[in-house]
Automatic annotation (TrEMBL):
<protein>
    <recommendedName>
        <fullName>Exodeoxyribonuclease 7 large subunit</fullName>
        <ecNumber>3.1.11.6</ecNumber>
    </recommendedName>
</protein>
<feature type="domain" description="Exonuclease VII large subunit C-terminal">
    <location>
        <begin position="135"/>
        <end position="445"/>
    </location>
</feature>
<dbReference type="GO" id="GO:0003676">
    <property type="term" value="F:nucleic acid binding"/>
</dbReference>
<comment type="subunit">
    <text>Heterooligomer composed of large and small subunits.</text>
</comment>
<dbReference type="GO" id="GO:0008855">
    <property type="term" value="F:exodeoxyribonuclease VII activity"/>
</dbReference>
<dbReference type="GO" id="GO:0006308">
    <property type="term" value="P:DNA catabolic process"/>
</dbReference>
<comment type="similarity">
    <text>Belongs to the XseA family.</text>
</comment>
<dbReference type="GO" id="GO:0005737">
    <property type="term" value="C:cytoplasm"/>
</dbReference>
<keyword id="KW-0378">Hydrolase</keyword>
<dbReference type="Pfam" id="PF02601">
    <property type="entry name" value="Exonuc_VII_L"/>
</dbReference>
<comment type="function">
    <text>Bidirectionally degrades single-stranded DNA into large acid-insoluble oligonucleotides, which are then degraded further into small acid-soluble oligonucleotides.</text>
</comment>
<keyword id="KW-0963">Cytoplasm</keyword>
<keyword id="KW-0269">Exonuclease</keyword>
<dbReference type="InterPro" id="IPR020579">
    <property type="entry name" value="Exonuc_VII_lsu_C"/>
</dbReference>
<keyword id="KW-0540">Nuclease</keyword>
<feature type="domain" description="OB-fold nucleic acid binding">
    <location>
        <begin position="20"/>
        <end position="111"/>
    </location>
</feature>
<dbReference type="InterPro" id="IPR003753">
    <property type="entry name" value="Exonuc_VII_L"/>
</dbReference>
Amino acid sequence: MNSESPFSSAAGAGGDAVVPVSALNRAIGTMLERTFPLVWVSGEVSNFTRAASGHWYFSIKDAQAQMRCVMFRGRAQYAEFTPREGDKIEVRALVTMYEPRGELQLNVEAVRRTGQGRLYEAFLRLKAQLEAEGLFDPQRKRALPAHPRSIGIVTSLQAAALRDVLTTLARRAPHIPVIVYPAPVQGAGVGAKLAAMVELASRRREVDVLIVCRGGGSIEDLWAFNEEVLARAIAASEVPVVSGVGHETDFTIADFAADVRAPTPTGAAELVSPQRVLLLRDLDHRHASLARGFGRMMERRAQQLDWLARRLVSPAERLARQRTHLQQLCARLASAGARPVRDARAHFSLVQMRWQRWRPDLSQHRATVNGLGERLERALLRQHERHLARVETLAARLEVLSPQRTLERGYAALLDAQSGRAVRAPSALKPGRRMTLHLAEGSADIALSDVQPRLTDGF
């Protein structure tokens, strides 16, 4: 190593130098981090624990050794999956020393699956790609025929799934012919062979529905059904496709591309085949319904025939019936013509009687009006007499207060000739001022020559 140890100088000064444990562990940790860069390590997961802080603690082991690992929350939150006990994984880690306990550990920065894990990642990538292209769109999927005329099967002739499917079809629908399109279901290049059989069945159009199936197995065994070529062949098929691969918990790309996924091959056979017993039962029910309908129709026809037979009479009898009917119509017409007149007369009599009953007695009202007229005339006469007496009284009072009467008693009224106003104070009498003097028997214009005013309290 080119770098000097942190305690090499102390050891050189004295051969018996004492080093603290923490310093020793720190030096070892520094040496490990500098010596071993980031490296991918594979193994099996054991003792996996997720702490409350979000950190992962586990061990990775193989047949000969194991090593403790830690993946801190900042890295663990970006992991695509959570390891489980027994998973085979690969970790990208840095070799470090956990100083408090002096334990060697791997500081994990990334984790990925190995073996099955890589296949699963490839499965997820292909699934996402095909899903983005719309191959798994539910709007594209077609409904299965209710009564297929023939059923096709794409699988291996030696597969146990073929026997299960054929047994189920023979039990449920022995009347439907079955066509097998043989193809291997495991091995190299199997996906292309399965796709070729699907394309053949679609091209021939000799079946109404197609089953693509095989029994259960590991992900490697089922990998042929995860190949893109088979998924595209299923999606492009003109015949509805049912996928029955593996067990109920197994999912393949073919399941998503097919029109319907069955949990097992037997389930696929049950989905495409109508049960013969139920079909026969339904046929019996329809036959009975048809027989009842036909019987009711015959009864209605017979009743209609009887009614038509009753209407079938001789011409003479028909003329006699028509003559009788005509006479009845004439009588009804005459009665109908007289009835409105009779009803109108009765109604008129009723209205006339009601009018006479409610007709007012004019003589009584006339006497009342005459009495009210006399009372009005008397009231007006009395009111006139009262007004006349009041006018006479007011005239007498006016006569008493008349200025002429005052002048006749010897008084005179002196008015200013210019303004026409009455002269009330001696101060208004000035020499040369013209005045008008009103007396009982006339008036005279005068001019004052000498005035000597004198104020008094009375005459």
